[in-house]
Every structure is written in C-alpha cells, then in structure tokens.
Design brief:
Helix content: 25-40%
Strand order of the largest sheet: 1-2-12-13-14-15-16
Length: 474
C-alpha cells in the first residue's frame, strides 16, 4: 500500500483520526512511506432512513422521492437530501440507489425509472426487487446535471480542520465536472498554509466530467477514474473505451491515473472472479499508475488477501508490459523540439534500457524530474532522491521535501527516499557522491541493486543536467 484514502462519505473526523493513528504506527514499525488522501463527499445525493430498518422495494411497485427529511422512509416513500431533484430529472430518466453505491449485486442496489414529477416530488417505478438497509443510501441520477457545488461546506470544514491538522498529501475531488472545480479547490487549499502543496486528484464520476476531461486533466495533478459511478452513467459497452482513452491521455500528459472498483467480489470472497483478475491486469497494461481499493479493504472480510492478490496480478502484468512500444509512442507524442527536462528524462530512460541498468537514480527537490523519467515507463525502478530545501514563512524556517517524497508514491515505478537536508540538489560533486552512496545502500537493502550492476544517475551539477552511467564494484 502506497496511499491511504480517507473517505469522508463514510465516517467522521474522529473515526478517520483513529485510523490515521494506526497508519502512523504501521509506517513507524515498517519504515515504509505512506501518503494520505482525503476523499471529499462532493454533491452526493442521499436517501435518509432515520429508523435504519430494512426497506423492501418490489419490482413494478411505485415509490415517491421527496425532499422532506422529517418523513419516515418506507417502501412507498423515500426522503432525499436535495430539493432540486424534481427540477433536474424528467420522465424516463434512470435513478440508481444503494447502500454502498452499486456493488452490481441486484439484491443490495435498485434502479428506478421516473414516471412523473409533481412539484418537489419525483414518482418512480421500481425496476428490480431489492432490500435496502442502513441509515443512508446513495442516490445517482444517470446523465443528469445536479446543481450543487463540487466542494461542499461540509467538505471545506473537513479539509480546514482534519486536512490541515494531518497535512494531507492528496485531495480526491469527488464528482469533478469542470476544470473550474479544480481551480476553486486549489484556491481554497492555497489559503490553508501547508496544504498549498497538497496535490488535487480529480475524480471523474459521470458523463459531465468525461465530456470536460481534457480541460480537467490540464488543471488537476492526477485523475481518479471512479468506475462505480461511471459504470452507471455510461452504457456498459462504452466503459472499456473511456478507460483506455482516459489512461492514454493521462500517460501522455505525465499525470498519474488511478483506477477504482476492480475486485468487488473480494469484499466477501477469498478469491476474485476470472473477469476481475483480467480487469486488474488490463488496467496495468492500459497504463494505470495505481489501483484504488474501496469496499474490499474498508469493510471487506479479506483486506490483506485482497491487497496481496491485486499486487501479484499487477506484478505479473508488468512483466509483459510492452515498454519498447510505449517508449516510442510517448517520444512521438511529445514531439520535437523537446523541453530541456523532457529531453534529459527520455535520454536517461533510453540509456538505462541500452545498458540494462538495474535502477535509475534521480536527484530532485520538487519531484518533477523523477516524475518525468517515470512517465517513459522504464523497465527498471526509478529511485527518486528528494533533496529537502530550506524555506521560511517569515516566522520560522522549515525543510520541504516530505510532501514531495510522499506524493511520488502514487506514480508508477517511482520509489522515493528523503535525503539529508545538508545536501543540495545541485551541489558539488563530492556531496552528490555521498548522497548517491546512501541511495545505492538503500537500493541494495531493498534488493533492487547488487554488485556489478549498472546504474543510471540523473542529477544537476551547477547549471547543467547530467545523465551518467555507473558500474558498481564488489
């Protein structure tokens, strides 16, 4: 596990703080870095069931959705938290509902068809029999614009309290629909001290987000493809197409892409289905940087086995990934003339492949150079040595670097380590040699470097960027 996602759709700050304290203990005991991602609620529509008693909805029966939270939920009437639903939907529209948002199991989620709209009331016919239990159910109106802010007041409160307190590395912006959503979130974070460094991952969850994908990708630091919701908004036969197209665009832009909802069946089963195992492998072959697990580890019976199984499938898929074709495709897409950094990054990868290097070591202070090298998907690991920089806010001095190191964890093939702050990223040859020795020792301890291996090093010496090849002694 590289990143821990804290989903504020489920549980409050206290619950998440307890989980985070457990994570900090695990990081300390394993001596492995792990980043923290806060996942916002966004404009999520919910059915409120005050009693928490199970509600049986039968096929072909009629149910009314009303924005009256004082009403008691029943099989004929469901109170919702949004007054504008009746203005957003029309006859024939499809509405999905479920406790954990559409596991695919028709006994726990239900789909409705709108038959009429009376004032604030939406009347629907039930299309499948299902039992809904619990206090809250998520509601999703397929291909319908919901007039609610992407970053709600509840989200802002969670970010400015829990997020600031715990210096979150990533913000997962749920239901991102336009680039302006990302810009507004970034503006909000910029006023919260350390969170100005927090990276924003736009979560694409509906057709509206997909139709503005290119502008969102430009504005965001990375993309999360929320296939649970997208699988509802899109016809099933289109899902694979959007995944391949979106991942390709992210890869060419050099921005991390995360795929969700891969092994739902492992929530209750020890092994994934054959289709799920193939799906995980295809996500890797399509160019995904990371796999995000949800229900499988949040409430599943086999969280450890799930991570182990998905990890093994990813490792097997990476062995057959066509790096040569990918490299040529990326170089062609970037075109000429390349920028200075892009040229150095692609040259480092080409050199590493030609000399069969076991690892690429990159000295960086912002993490950008290492991410550019990883963009070309080298067949060997990229060891990103993050050199801390001294900074001040006029009141106190502090070192940067921890954010940059943890944020590299979500990038495929990138392994960050934090260097001694006494060394600068573009310092003299002697200090770079000592940092390199620490990096090589780290690689040896991790088992990726051994005697007589060739190493490609990418670093700045003065104003020049240098790529050099080193052959190790005994």
């Amino acid at each position: 596990m590289s990143v821990a996602r804290f989903d504020f759709s489920s549980g409050g700050a206290e619950v998440h703080q307890k989980t985070l304290e457990n994570l900090k203990l695990a990081v300390k005991s394993t001596k492995k870095l792990c980043a923290v991602m806060l996942d916002t609620v966004g404009p999520e529509l919910q059915v409120v069931n005050k009693t928490g008693q199970a509600i049986l909805l039968k096929e072909d029966d009629v149910v009314r959705l009303i924005p009256e939270l004082d009403e008691e939920a029943s099989s004929e009437l469901l109170p919702i938290n949004f007054t504008g639903l009746s203005k957003a939907v029309k006859k024939g529209d499809t509405i999905f509902m479920g406790k954990y948002l559409f596991t695919g199991s028709e006994t726990t989620s239900v789909w409705l068809e709108v038959t009429e709209v009376n004032g604030d009331e939406v009347v629907c016919v039930i299309k499948n029999t299902a039992t809904l239990d619990g206090a809250l159910f998520t509601l999703h109106a397929s291909q319908v614009h919901i007039d609610l802010p992407t970053l709600s007041e509840k989200d802002k409160q969670a970010i400015s309290s829990w997020g600031v307190q715990n210096k979150i590395d990533f913000l997962s912006l749920s239901y991102t629909r336009h680039a302006e959503d990302v810009r507004q979130a970034r503006d909000f974070l910029s006023k919260l001290g350390d969170l100005s460094q927090t990276q924003i991952f736009a979560k694409i969850e509906n057709v509206e987000g997909l139709s503005h994908f290119d502008e969102i990708l430009q504005a965001a630091d990375g993309i999360i493809l929320s296939r649970g919701n997208l699988g509802i908004d899109l016809p099933p036969e289109k899902v694979f197409l959007f995944q391949k197209a979106a991942l390709y665009k992210c890869n060419m832009a050099g921005k991390p892409a995360v795929v969700t909802r891969v092994v739902d069946s492992m929530t209750n089963n020890l092994r994934p289905t054959r289709a799920e195992a193939t799906d995980v492998a295809n996500a890797v072959l399509d160019g995904s940087d990371a796999i995000l697990l949800g229900a499988e580890t949040f409430r599943g019976l086999y969280p450890v086995e799930t991570i182990s199984t998905v990890g093994k499938i990813c490792a097997e898929a990476e062995k057959v990934f066509n790096q040569d074709l990918y490299f040529k495709k990326t170089v062609k897409y970037v075109g000429e003339p390349m920028t200075h950094l892009e040229s150095i990054a692609s040259s480092a990868v080409r050199a590493a492949i030609k000399v069969k290097a076991s690892v690429i070591v990159c000295f960086t202070s912002s993490g950008r150079a290492a991410r550019l090298i990883a963009k070309y998907r080298p067949t060997m690991p990229v060891l990103s040595v993050v050199i801390p920089r001294l900074k001040t806010n006029q009141l106190r001095w502090s070192f940067s670097g921890a954010f940059e190191a943890r944020q590299s964890l979500i990038v495929r093939g990138l392994f960050p380590m934090l260097a001694d702050p006494r060394h600068a990223a573009e310092s003299t040859n002697a200090t770079n040699e000592s940092v390199l020795k620490v990096a090589l020792d780290h690689g040896k301890a991790a088992g990726v470097i051994k005697s007589h291996d060739r190493i490609v090093v990418c670093q700045k010496v003065g104003d020049a960027s240098v790529v050099k090849i080193i052959e190790l002694d005994d």
